[in-house]
Each structure stands twice: as C-alpha cells, then as structure tokens.
Amino acid sequence: MLSVLEFYSGIGGLHLALKRANSTTCVKVLRAFDWDPSASEVYSHNFGGGIVNRCDILSLNAIDLLPYEADMWLLSPACQPYTVLNPNAKGETDPRAKSFLHLMTSVLPELVTQRKGPRCILVENVAGFETSTTRQVVLKTLESLQYYISEFLLTPLQFGIPNSRLRYYLLARRDPFHFLPSEDIHSESDPRRSIPNEGPDWIDPRLQVDDSVNYSVLPLRNFLDEQDYPSSSSPYAIPKKILRSKHAPLFDIVKPCSTRTCCFTRGYTHMIEGSSILQQAEDLDTTDTFNAYAIATASDASHKDNNDPLELLLSLHLRYFTPTELLRLFCFNLPPNRVLSTGGPAAMMSSYEAYLSSSRSSTRDFTFPDTTSLKTRYRLIGNSVNVYVVSKTTNYEVSQDTLRKMCLSDVSGYDILNGAVSGTPCIIDWSVPEFDIRFIF
Ligand SMILES: C[S@@+](CC[C@H](N)C(=O)[O-])C[C@H]1O[C@@H](n2cnc3c(N)ncnc32)[C@H](O)[C@@H]1O
C-alpha cells in the first residue's frame, strides 16, 4: 500500500490523480490538510469524511506528521506568490509562501533525520515557480537530504486536452529508489517539457516556425454539456452590461470545434481578458459579428430604427463554461458520450484520446455538494489541477520507483505485464511504449 499525505488539498485533484494513475495499487491518503472550509467540504463529499484536517499548514510540526509514516507527500501550495499574472508577485518573501518553505526546509529535514521522511514527493505549482528563489531553496534542501529530483513544465494541450494550463511539477525521490541517472537534474537545469515516452517536448504551436511538431487535440464539443442556447436569465449567459462594455472583444471566444481554451483561473466569470467563453452559434463568424456591432453602435441609423445593435452580439449565443464542463476539461470527469476523435488514424491519437478510447471503467463522477455556490465552484476548480496531467506525472514517478526496485532486487515478486518475468534482475527496454507494469507495494 502506498500511504500518502496531501498538503494544500483543495478539492482533492492530486488525490484523484494518484488514484487514477495507480488503479492497480492500493493508494491510501491518510490525511489531507487545507484551511478552506468550502474546499474541505467538497473534498469530504467526494473522498469521504475524516480525511481533511482543516488547519494552517504553518502550524504543523514533524511531531504531528511522524505517526503517519507516509510513503509519499503531495503538495500544491498557493501559487499567487509565483504567478506571472501577478506583476507584484513576491515569491519567497510573500507570506503565502511561508507554510510551504516551513514544511520543506524545517519539517521534512527533521522527519528524514528520524528516518520517517517520505520516499517520494510531488509538488505542483504555476509556471513561473521555476524561476523563483523558493525553488532554489527547496532544491538545495532536497539534494542535501539525498533526494533525487526531476522537474517538468507541462500543459494539458500536449496530452490532447483542449485547455492551456502550463504548470510546474517537481518529483523527488529518496535514495535508493531514485530516478535513472540521466534523469536526475540539478538546480541549474531547466524543467523538462515532456514526460519520457509521453510524446514530444511541448512547443507552443503559435511560436513554431514550421509544422514540425503536430499535436492532435480533441475538439471542445466532447467536453460540453448538452445545452440549448442560454436564456438571458441563465447564470451562464454573459450579462448584457459586459457585452456592451468596450472590453468585451478581449474575451477569448471559442466554438465547440475549437481545440484550445485559456487557463480558467479562480476569478473566472469576473475577468474578461484571457477568459474563454463559448460561442454556441457555431456558424457565425465572430470577428465579422463584432465588427458589424461596432459599426452599428457608431451609426445613428440603427438607433432611429429602434434596432438595438446588441442583438448582433446576442445572435452569437455566447456563454460561460459551466462548472461541469470545467470538471471535464480538468479531467475530474470523463466526457459524457466519449464521442472523441480528432479524426486521425489511431497512430495520431493524442494521449488523452487513447486513454479514453481504451478506458473501460465507469468511474464515479466528481460532484459538488448542493450547498456549494456557483461562484465557489468556479473558484475551487480554478485553484485545482488537471487530473490527467498529474496522473501521468505521478505514474512516471511511481513506475520509476518500481523500476528501481526491480533493478535492485529479484523481480519474481512483481507481476509484470507485457514484459519478461524471470527470477533475475531485469533491464527494461523503455523504447517499448506500451510497457505496462503492475506493482505491489
Ligand atoms: C492551489 S490550491 C490547491 C488545490 C488542490 N490541489 C486541488 O486539487 O483543489 C492551494 C490550496 O492551499 C490552501 N492553503 C493555502 N495556504 C494554506 C495554509 N497555510 N494552510 C492550509 N491551507 C492552505 C488553499 O485553501 C487552497 O485550497
């Protein structure tokens, strides 16, 4: 069994990812820590009561964590100190960075000294963390404690999910189960842009000079609720006041056929620039319609006719994405009909499409308690993680761990699929992409 402590647990995206990644292993989250009452309620609603400890993580000490003897720590600390969206981000000196630094530089060394430190650690944060002094401090501490480190910058887009959410991931493992030597990295290195054997490095297609790397991404329609056009009283309709504002053209307007959305932050529905909204009237040209609206509002003629130019924009049937749609884009829940298809041959399938088409299990849907308001749902999802990307990352971490065990010991205790099983230590050919390992802790 893999025993886990989850810090900054929110609604439990890391917990869900770990379960999805290791369906053949018994994973037990012994305790989750977060001070947010709404997030903790949603967590308990989905994972059961008695796991979340609502406390300030800054108040935790080694003596509190020692009894758990956890194998793994999951951490997704506050990202405001590091986000590139915040020009005043203070990094290490931001008070919101304090509890994470306390855990990593004070609590962890004490546990390791007592031989009770976790053997694997996963940290998730925003892109921007990799240039922070917090990262430098944490890497130095981990290296001094004999942890081996691997770092990634990954976005759901590179797995075929139509959402741009570039995130930083740090995987640390303590001797003797560390990453393969070539994969150890040091404070000076840049994070990797792909997981080994999980497709090419991520290069934003908008920055590519040629089409050398093609990503096949599922169209948004797979992730949408079955919805009629929203009425003006729908909570998802874009308020007329906002549509009339001069900032409305700054929305990122996407259609069901689109293969990209923006990040969806905790402030979704309260921001215009960089917020993706859906145009349900797919046949209308967005730019032409906005141009026609601008001309109509500038001319007197339409006013004389009593035609409200806003009707032009209303004909686009614009709306916010619903929380259930965001839960699908963040891979908490699977697409309802599994329609899929980027239309390409199987070899061109994205990682996520291949996962969906081979996945036979019907997972229980992640839900919100009825008492969670719409605003809170958006905030909590915006704070959370892409479950598929994290599950791929943790799968890499845990399978590396398994690999180490197999290289160091007799493999006969392990159940290996599609690979040679023998009574001697084995070398695994990583060039075989479908190599599948079942591991027993
Ligand atoms: C980026 S979110 C993590 C989201 C989470 N991984 C999920 O899937 O929802 C950060 C979380 O840390 C919590 N948090 C921040 N500082 C904290 C502290 N000092 N003590 C306890 N919780 C804290 C916030 O309430 C928030 O839920």
TrEMBL record:
<feature type="active site">
    <location>
        <position position="79"/>
    </location>
</feature>
<dbReference type="GO" id="GO:0032259">
    <property type="term" value="P:methylation"/>
</dbReference>
<dbReference type="InterPro" id="IPR029063">
    <property type="entry name" value="SAM-dependent_MTases_sf"/>
</dbReference>
<feature type="region of interest" description="Disordered">
    <location>
        <begin position="182"/>
        <end position="201"/>
    </location>
</feature>
<dbReference type="GO" id="GO:0008168">
    <property type="term" value="F:methyltransferase activity"/>
</dbReference>
<keyword id="KW-0808">Transferase</keyword>
<dbReference type="GO" id="GO:0005634">
    <property type="term" value="C:nucleus"/>
</dbReference>
<dbReference type="InterPro" id="IPR050750">
    <property type="entry name" value="C5-MTase"/>
</dbReference>
<protein>
    <recommendedName>
        <fullName>S-adenosyl-L-methionine-dependent methyltransferase</fullName>
    </recommendedName>
</protein>
<keyword id="KW-0489">Methyltransferase</keyword>
<keyword id="KW-0949">S-adenosyl-L-methionine</keyword>
<dbReference type="Pfam" id="PF00145">
    <property type="entry name" value="DNA_methylase"/>
</dbReference>
<feature type="compositionally biased region" description="Basic and acidic residues">
    <location>
        <begin position="182"/>
        <end position="195"/>
    </location>
</feature>
<comment type="similarity">
    <text>Belongs to the class I-like SAM-binding methyltransferase superfamily. C5-methyltransferase family.</text>
</comment>
<dbReference type="InterPro" id="IPR001525">
    <property type="entry name" value="C5_MeTfrase"/>
</dbReference>
